[in-house]
Amino acid sequence: GIQVEQSPPDLILQEGANSTLRCNFSDSVNNLQWFHQNPWGQLINLFYIPSGTKQNGRLSATTVATERYSLLYISSSQTTDSGVYFCAALNSGGYQKVTFGTGTKLQVIP
Amino acid sequence: DAGVIQSPRHEVTEMGQEVTLRCKPISGHNSLFWYRQTMMRGLELLIYFNNNVPIDDSGMPEDRFSAKMPNASFSTLKIQPSEPRDSAVYFCASSSANSNQPQHFGDGTRLSIL
After folding, report:
1. Which residues of B touch A98 (CB under 8 A)?
2. Most buried residue among A28, B59, B82, B89 by CB atoms closer than 10 A?
3. Are A3 and A25 in contact (CB under 8 A)?
4. How far apart are CA B60 and CA B42, in angstroms?
5. How far apart are CA B57 and CA A23, in angstroms?
6. How many Å apart are CA B92 and CA B22, to the nearest integer?
7. Where are the alpha helices (DSSP H) in B4-114?
8. From the centroid of its chain, how far is CA B46?
9. What is the average per-residue pLDDT within B61-74?
10. Which chain A positions have a beta carbon within 8 Å of B107's beta carbon?
11. How far A45 CA sits from the closest chain B CA (Å)?
């Protein structure tokens, strides 16, 4: 099956700093999702992005499907950004089989 | 709009007991997914339903696990008998079958088997 790798595995930021999280996937995908798992364990949709770039406030994402990677940008980080960020690839098969990466654990310190 | 609703939020029970987790998908969604999250294995897809029919249950760990979707608005994941290694957070997600629609997750059920 498809492999999804995320980097870095862990990241500590000073509040106000910017960061880039990366997601590589091993095969062609129909789509890609970014999630934020907050300290309470909730999985929050951030982006659903097959290609191109999307922005939502301080967050933006870019997927280059032909090169099999996606990037999540966090600007002016805040302590509420702490948590684990997952990317999830939707395969090109007949249904939405989703494979999650192992996540990037982000801690934003004041 | 109501999101995906899971119950209970937390469950603590002794090994050997039957455990039933419940999920109500978002109205209008016809795809439903059960996931399990552990420290060791991360997020794993257990089973996927489309229009109430199980399409892929290859992720179900063993015969102690079973899932049903009797109608479009309700699904259960049952573990019988439960074992300590089943302790995990179980998520339910739903989406439209159109592959261009995202999956929306419930808040999960944190299961502890003693």
Report:
1. 33, 45, 103
2. B82
3. yes
4. 15
5. 26
6. 9
7. none
8. 7
9. 94
10. 41-42
11. 7
SS3 A60: strand
HSE-CB at B66 with a 13 A cutoff on CA atoms is 7
Q: How far is the alpha carbon of A107 from chain B, nearest alpha carbon, in Å?
A: 18
CA distance B64 to chain A (A): 23
Which of A48, A50, A96 lies closest to B31 in CB terms? A96
Summarize pLDDT for A46-102 with one digit per residue, the tens: 999 989 999 999 999 999 999 999 999 999 999 999 999 999 998 765 566 788 999
| Residue corresponding to tokens 């998908």 | B25
Q: Which residues of chain B does A84 touch, with a Cβ-Cβ cutoff of 8 Å?
A: none
Is the backbone of residue A76 left (phi > 0), alpha (psi -120 to 50) or beta? left
Q: How many residues does chain A have?
A: 110
Residue A97 and residue A4 in contact, taking contact as beta carbons nearer than 8 Å: no
- Strand order, beta sheet including A19-25: A4-7, A19-25, A69-74, A59-64, A52-56
Cis peptide before A8 (omega within 30 of 0): yes
Give A5's strand partners.
A24
The residue type at A15: E
Look at A48 and B48 and tell me if their CB atoms are within 8 Å. Answer: no
Among A15-24, B44-53, B99-108, the range scoring the smallest mean pLDDT is B99-108
Task: Report the distance separating Cα B9 and Cα B107, nearest Å.
Answer: 8
